[in-house]
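Q: Protein A?
A:
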Amino acid sequence: MEMMLWNAILSFVSAVILWIIKTNWDELQRVQILLNRTREEVAKEYVTRSDVHHDINRVLDRLDRLEGKLDAYMKEQRSALN
């Protein structure tokens, strides 16, 4: 009788431990899925540093060209006045 009670207790404790492990494993899988989705969403919403630098360089190049044209126009106007 004592051996049967001991087996029942061990079986119950083993079942509880396995249930806790399975619950934690399922939660870990859920968190990993959410993390992967978050990474995908972040990649959609934000740009990389190199993209920002490339775009800023394009704007600065355009401003330099505009500055050159404005300087040429101002020289032309000064020469017309003299």
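Q: Protein B?
A:
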Amino acid sequence: MTLKIEKVSDTRGTTLRLIGRIRVEHLEKLKAQVHPKPTKVALDLDEVSLVDVDVVRFLGACEAEGVELLHCRPYIREWISRECGVRSSKSES
């Protein structure tokens, strides 16, 4: 299964419901949906089954920019935390 993106917008913002596997080749399309948005953006990861390291870094960067990650699986959340910690440590050196 490849990535499917369902977009839901209302007065509070836009939620992008991501379904399937997110890989590096999907990032350009996803970036175009996330940036730049005049309203609040959230990514619903409830039906995401697989990600790669580039996607994890992208999700961490999105979150740092204020994008809310909804229904993020614990292993993805942990991976984001580790990747962000590694980047922070390297930039402090």
